[in-house]
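Hey, quick one: can you model this chain's 3D structure?
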Amino acid sequence: MSDQAVGFLGLGTMGAAMAANLARAGFPVTAWNRTPRPQPDLEGLGVTMAATPSAVARATDIIVICVSDTPDVDAVLFGPDGVAAGARPGQLVIDCSTISPSATRDFAARLATVGVDLVDAPVSGGSEGAQKATLTIFCGGEKAPVERARPILEAMGKTITHVGPSGSGQAVKAVNQVILAGAYLGVAEGIVLALKAGLDVEQVVGALGGGAAQSWVLANRSGRMLDNDYPLGFKVALHRKDLGIALDLAREMDAELPVATLTAGFEDDLISDGHAEDDMSALARVIRSRSGLPG
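Sure thing. Here's the predicted structure for all 295 residues.
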């Protein structure tokens, strides 16, 4: 068992699986969730539950955060009973949330005033990656804190890359989400075209998998688009939030992102129609509906 006590803040679909993998790897874990609820799976792994983020900070050496958005990270770090209220010099915070790069730099500077390092470490790989500890993780921060974070990250992910100074991990995650927007739309359009052409779609997917059209989305989400059934993997609402971050960054950098902008509009429609909790492969609903198929 590691002698590094780890705190984990945020036990949603991703966070609960990531905290469980830390416990399985031998780290003593103290956890907190904004909505208190029984966590029998985690408690069975020896995870201790705490009442506040500050209590987690007082009990641990390294604190991992996995919450939904920039204001949530702000509240967890600096709100009443937040991490900063219980922090001590020499601690490390690893933020696996997907938030604003500029806010990340601000949070890092504020934590530095109390002697706490921040590594931004947003993840990619969805709920499957969180469960299997195969997440891809993009790290921003100084070299020493990133190296200190690495054993924790290796218990949760497979590919860990230090991409630059504070905020860089979040910027890379924004790029990731922009590319995913295009991948999901492209696969959705291809599946719909194959359906309209009367082709055997499963055969088409198998054939395309051996060529240049192969992608994780084609292999893992085309079946959902064919069946028009979208069980949770990564919520439409969360991807829309991530695209908002990416589009804000694009405006700051004077970059034009037409596909991401189009996808954001489609996701707004899905959310308005009650599909916020669907997996983001539900983008196919829009293409199917526009093409005269059930959507």
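One thing worth noting: The mean pLDDT is 96.
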